[in-house]
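User: Hello, can you help with two protein structures?

Assistant: Certainly.
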Amino acid sequence: MFTTTLSPTEKPFQSVNWSFNFSTIIVVMINSEETIGPEYEGRITFFPSTASLELRSLTLDDTGEYSVGIIQDGKPQNGRTTLLIYEKVSNVLVNSSSTDLVEFSGSVSLSCSASGSSLSFLWLNSSSEVTASDRVQLTDGGSSLTIINVTRFDQGPFRCRVSNPVSAVTSDPVNLSISYGPENINLILSPPQEYFAVGSDISLTCSVGSRPPAQFNWFLNGDQLPDTGSELRLMNVNMSNSGNYSCQAFNNKTLRSQTSQPSAITVLGRFDLLLKCVIHAYIFD
């Protein structure tokens, strides 16, 4: 609705001329006779008492400059305004070049597409805005996101928010699977002591940071044992079980491995263990 600032008058205007971009005639009224431009037939209502104009069924092509020239009692008056038409945002989709990556050795590109006009793009990692950095590139007007040397903190969920002055739509989330590790390996001996009596039960537990979960191998004095899994249980031990135990974690996605520091286990006969205890007590007394 283009509403003029003129008050209704009983005396008709001598002439009114509405035009689009200063060249296309919308409506012309001369001495109460109206002529409507062919492109606007059925789309406008002209109000002769105020020279106001209603335009309906808007399209993107209606964006532009609207001007009106009025002559009343021989005096010309002019007015103009700019109309901006936008198509609402819809069909927001995110495509990823890959969703299965390895930390520090993989890169990923995310592209956002949408329908609509005058689109602006914003990327979100969870609820935080993604901004450009040494590792993060935003290109193609912000619709493309590239992350170089991904880390475990780049898992997402990533969303693309597309907006224009009349609407905004956010895409469905895209999650990345970032494999990492193994790292920070730790070997725990239970009970936590170095000397054990023949017949004791001993447990060694290996923990490590890894995604996906690591596979474990066990070693005694550098020789691989047949046991696997994160726990090694030594039941009813004898002196042949003595030695330095270590665990090795392997990630089948990153193809990396890490080996723990060795944990020494000494199995003694009852007499030898008693003698050790007596000597220990004598030294510290």
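That covers the first. Now for the second protein you mentioned:
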Amino acid sequence: MSAIRRKFGEDYQVVNTNRGMSFSAPAKRKRQRFVDKNGRCNVQHGNLGGETGRYISDLFTTLVDLKWRWNLLIFLLTYTVAWLIMAFMWWIIAYIRGDLGNGHDESYTPCVANVYNFPSAFLFFIETEATIGYGFRYITEKCPEGIILFLFQSLLGSIVDAFLIGCMFIKMSQPKKRAETLMFSQDAVISQRDGKLCLMFRVGNLRNSHMVSAQIRCKLIKSRQTPEGEFLPLDQRELDVGFGTGADQLFLVSPLTICHEINSKSPFFDLSQRSLMNEQFEIVVILEGIVETTGMTCQARTSYTEDEVLWGHRFLPVMSLEEGFFRVDYSQFHNTFEVPTPPYSVKEQDEKSSLPSPSPLLSPTVLDGRSRRERIFSLDGVPQAIEPMSKLPSKLQRISSKNGKEVLKTGSSQVTEKASSTGDLPFRVQRLGSLLGQGEAENQLQLKAIKMGPEAHTRSAGELEHHRLLPVPVPVPGHNLNPLPESIGRPEDNLPPKLRRMNADH
């Protein structure tokens, strides 16, 4: 086990590989399987009624499907009965013609020479059928009925030989025995692979000859009841083992672990370690491929019941690198070891992951105090709602920024001056809406720096808020108290003459 730890790390520490002690499940009464471990289907057809004749119409397939003892019995009986019947017919011809009493008379010409009784007639048939031809017994030209019987015997013998020998050849060349050299693991396991919960089992090929175009399929056999109340015994559902990705097409040179990902489309979506003990199902595994030596299709089957599915286990590695080749240790083929696996179903895990995580809530008072202080003393924390400078022309904004930097530099040797920031500007622009007259004083803009001494740092938030200038009024629909002239083309045209000259210089 230390080799496994060195290979897989401490996260895959082996807990126990003994199946009898590693998985403690309540003892269940052994129930009837749908498919045995050796692949035999436990289904018997009864009460066929008049449908039995269908087996006779397909006699060749019926003989091939029979067991070997019945095939051998039919083979021996067919040849024995055919030989006896044909020997009896030759004896009847000799008896009717009177050849039995005159067989030793050299002046008498019999139908078949040297046939005196039934054993001699039987030997004549065997020599003729097997084309041995000892030359002691033969048909003469004085027996036309013997010639006709000889032709019939040749045709019948060819038909019987073709039928029985062909049946035996097909029976012997069937790939059922080839399926016995394809191995399946005794148990299936459920554990995580690539962060996903998966159902896995192992397959292997004991022969060096390959299985061409090997493909594997899985069926879930489980009884269920439809919403309409219909009960479906032994309902079959497909288990995806990589049909969409091509993982079901196997290159079966070494043992492979077949994986079924348990997701929302899987029948095991709500299966957990606890519910596994109360479930009743059977997983039928079907492996198909073409035998490389004979070119015939081979199919191997097995099944896993709920008692043979181990939660939180993984298969032991069986591959090792030798000098010039890879070695497979089939003594570890069926062994498993425990790994950390969540006992919850995929459905429960998805529900837990979809729940929102609780986030700490800050006090509104603390938030308000912090935001106010940042709005006053920070150059980056002013909300976008109080940015009147963004409405000024670009040249005027650059002038304001440049003058603001000079104010901050010159104020370091004197009394500390801080400006209330709006965005990236160090002083506030306010539009004066007071009506000084109907002349140039209407809609005049002023730039006004906010100066604060060292005592401003000790003031309360309320006092600082009192010294802040009013924000630029936002136009609202309705009657405008301070209408602007409609003839205004650009914002620079409404500035005082001094500011217009400064703007033109830059």
